Amino acid sequence: MSAVATVLRRDRLIVGTGLAFVAMAAWLYMIYEARRMNITGVCECMRMKMGGPELSDWSAATLPPLVLMWSEMMVAMMLPSAMPMILTFATVARNRRQQQRPYVPVAVFVSGYIAIWCAFSIGAALSQWLLHRHALLSTSMASTSAMLGGILLLAAGAFQFTPLKHSCLTHCRGPMEFIMTRWRDGWRGAFAMGLEHGAFCTGCCWALMILLFLAGVMNLVWIAALTILVCLEKMLPYRNLVSIGTGLLLTGWGACLLVLHFFELRA
Q1: Structure pTM?
Q2: Burial class (CB in 10 A: 0-12, 13-18, 19+), 253
Q3: In the prediction, which pLDDT does 20 show?
């Protein structure tokens, strides 16, 4: 048994190191992109990516680089919070291999998880593109409308108290229960498990992700704060208090923005 435990610990270390490397690479690339955008400006950065003229009014050709930007940002932000689930999958897969039962490399499960967030990134990029075309985002990709900011905060805060949030978060917090009740054999089954976990994760966190439109899509401080918040919601012993506290803070903040905006319009 000690030999098996040693192998399992070694596998978890290898998988954990690999995940940390991927997340770190995504963070480094995101920092590089953010610094370049701060120096050259977002429109110029998009022009460099597409090799076309100045894009003061973004065309549809800017969508692919926006999707790429959101995808690597989601990998950087969400992969750390998924580590407990991925490590649990790796442990179960190694046990099955030890028992000479069918198993699948953990990379297949991770690919399914990332695929869901890439799909989310398509919707986020399209939303950013539309907001920019309607002059609701600044050149730093932050909201230019107090009303939009207030609505985003209220929506994200209210979602913290919904049954959907609670249900998705419960699935994300129980790695072993998820693996045991939803195990599917084969590569297709592992990929489907990754898709399903990614769907629960997206259902849990999408409202927090749209807050990136508030302070700036590539605002590194905002991105880091949301990454930490997502990890705390999933990993802390008293994580329900984190969700409730976050919901109260966001709804209060959003209400204050909308009230101030109303009085500014009346003035």
Answers
A1: 0.85
A2: middle
A3: 86
